[in-house]
4'-phosphopantetheinyl transferase domain-containing protein
Amino acid sequence: MPILLHQHIEPEGELGIWQITETEAWFRDRLFLYPPELRQLAGIKGRKRVEWLGVRHLVHHMSGRDERGAFIKDEHGKPHLAHSRWHISISHSGELAAAIAAPQSVGIDIQRLVGKIERIAHRFMRPEELECLDEYQRLEHIHLFWGAKEALYKAYGRRQLHFSDNILIHPFPLDWNKGTFTGEVIKDDHHLTYELHYRMISSFVLVYAIEHESLND
């Protein structure tokens, strides 16, 4: 299936979603992979291989380039697109792959709704975050907190972040029409604030985070 979503995001950037119905062979025929990427793919098994290929195909589609840029990981494991100053972030879950690109720090997460997340919510949510959960959409609300913390972890781009201690989501009422809230990463000398945006796509929850310099001056 072709791209499901490709749109501009404020203040500057792009958001894309690809519904993966293609086979691994389909992607391999259309996607040039560089030697380090081939080595990475060799270590991936099963369905994850198609998801890995799908999200890279999505980013290439979004870039508009004729020649694909390689995915390069920095010393913290954060991906960057070769020969581009824009930040990128990727996520995949089941048949959906999501990507975001912007001049500033960004992060994205997409997750299929699963009931088991409620059993571990206390491990990644603060008490005040748990207290604000919507009574009637509790499962969706928990997924938003998880997705937000994943997105902030990726946007920050360094390891050793504890989801409860270092990533704070400002409690927010669930409002699918508004679809925004804010969060912070607090680690050592870093105190960064992000705007987060969310939506439902079928049975998946999408969350992405954008750092605005004006929020951190």
